[in-house]
Design a protein that fits this description.
416 residues, alpha/beta, Urease, subunit C, domain 1, TIM Barrel, eight-stranded mixed beta sheet, 37% helix, binds zinc ion
Length: 416
């Protein structure tokens, strides 16, 4: 009896001590937004060990170890810490990333930094690339040679016959890349199985493809066959809708995520919004994309402003209907890496900073099944963190002013 009591008394402080000793990264003096719905912690401390958050709280309660072995301290005075960002619409498809076997680890790291980690992205969903090439990069990140985000991928996209989008044909030709077009629903099913066997985390269909003077719509039976097979394998399906007809194909085939808004079709009606919501779809606005494309293709300022107005209305209407919004920029198709404009446009459309934070963290974690590990700053969560040099509650473009990006407890981008 006496012995066991002594043992208990001895164990309690020993466990507490180990917790403190086991920190290999400490963020101190930070204003922390633990999640989009919680109050911020002023003068907060976050302790990290083995890639996981071991403690978070105000400095008076959580102390970084002052006598432990090698601890990296990041002084976050005047800065803000949030969970690592997700970008749910990127392409591992730039000249610097294609033919990965010919690029050094340093070159790949540099390209991924410029495009992704420098903007706070610790996880990205690649919504069309070459699966074998993207797998090469993912393997090198996992081995530690390449510094980069966690990458999920859909691999090669699914185009209907004649549905390779006009704006990508030149690029494919220049880079001698052939992407197949579908011959039949049965072939679609076979390709879904093959891609998932080869490591794809999702599937992407072009429900509507932009062609010269028209939008080519994927036959419904093809879309249905592909989506059904992907769901049978437990994988989400993204659709590039282009217009209202494309949205109908997505709705009627059971697609999970709209990869863009559809400014081409004008504003969405309340009934349309309700149908998309009832189908439990997520929406990726990609507002900057429409501005970038308008400039590239010489659209008039008036047409460009109309497109932005429609896309903004769709985003706001879907958000107001409690539809799920995922942050995404289409970077890798565009070379417009700076995220400030997307935040400005989302705010202008009517989303507040907490809603925008949700599109970057909790919404994608929930959509893709990672709520238990990712999306919030909390004990036992992955130590995927972003340190911002400004407070997004005061100015949403602060989400783009990234001082440090931390993935699994390691600094993958930082201004020392
Ligand atoms: Zn895209």
């Amino acid at each position: 009896m006496r012995n066991s009591l002594l043992l208990v008394l001895f164990l309690i402080p020993a466990v507490a001590c180990n917790d403190i000793l086991a920190s290999d990264l400490a963020l101190i003096r930070a204003k922390i937004y633990p999640s989009p719905t919680e109050a911020p912690i002023e003068d907060g401390t976050i302790l990290v060990h083995n890639g996981v958050i071991t403690a978070i709280g105000p400095a008076r309660r959580v102390h970084p170890p002052d006598f432990a072995r090698a601890v990296t301290n990041i002084n976050c005075q005047g800065m803000v810490v949030t969970a690592g960002f997700w970008n749910s619409h990127v392409h591992i498809f730039t000249a610097g990333l294609l033919h990965a076997e010919t690029h050094s680890d340093i070159d790949l790291s540099s390209q991924l930094e410029q495009m992704l980690t420098r903007w706070g992205f610790t996880t990205v969903f690649d919504t069309a690339s070459l699966l074998e090439n993207t797998n090469n990069i993912r393997r090198r990140i996992a081995r530690g040679g390449v510094r980069g985000p966690r990458i999920f991928t859909v691999g090669e996209p699914f185009y209907a016959k004649g549905g390779t989008p006009i704006y990508i044909r030149g690029f494919l030709q220049e880079n001698r890349i052939a992407l197949p077009e579908l011959e039949s629903p049965a072939q679609g099913v076979e390709r879904v199985r093959q891609e998932i066997r080869d490591g794809a985390d999702g599937i992407k269909i072009f429900a509507g493809s932009i062609e010269p003077g028209s939008v080519l719509i994927m036959p419904l039976e093809e879309a249905r066959a592909i989506v059904t097979e992907a769901h049978r394998e437990g994988k989400p399906v993204f659709a590039h809708p282009s217009n209202n007809e494309g949205i109908e194909i997505a709705l009627n085939s059971g697609v999970d995520i709209l990869a863009h808004t559809t400014p081409m079709s004008g504003t969405w009606t309340a009934q349309q919004v309700q149908r998309i919501k009832a189908a439990n779809m997520a929406l990726i606005p990609t507002l900057t994309l429409f501005e970038v494309e308008a400039k590239k293709f010489g659209e008039s300022a008036e047409d460009s402003a109309n497109d932005l107005r429609s896309a903004s209305q769709q985003l706001k209407a879907y958000s107001d209907a409690k539809g799920q919004i995922l942050f995404g920029t289409d970077v890798g198709y565009t070379d417009y890496y700076d995220t400030a404009e997307e935040f400005r446009l989302m705010s202008q459309a009517g989303l507040d900073f907490r809603q925008i934070l949700a599109t970057l963290t909790t919404n994608p974690a929930s959509r893709f099944g990672y709520t238990a590990h990712s999306g919030r700053v909390a004990k036992d969560m992955d130590a995927d963190l972003v340190v911002l040099a400004g407070d997004p509650a005061k100015d949403v473009t602060a989400f783009s002013r990234v001082a440090f990006t931390i993935r699994q407890g390691k600094i993958v981008f930082g201004k020392d």
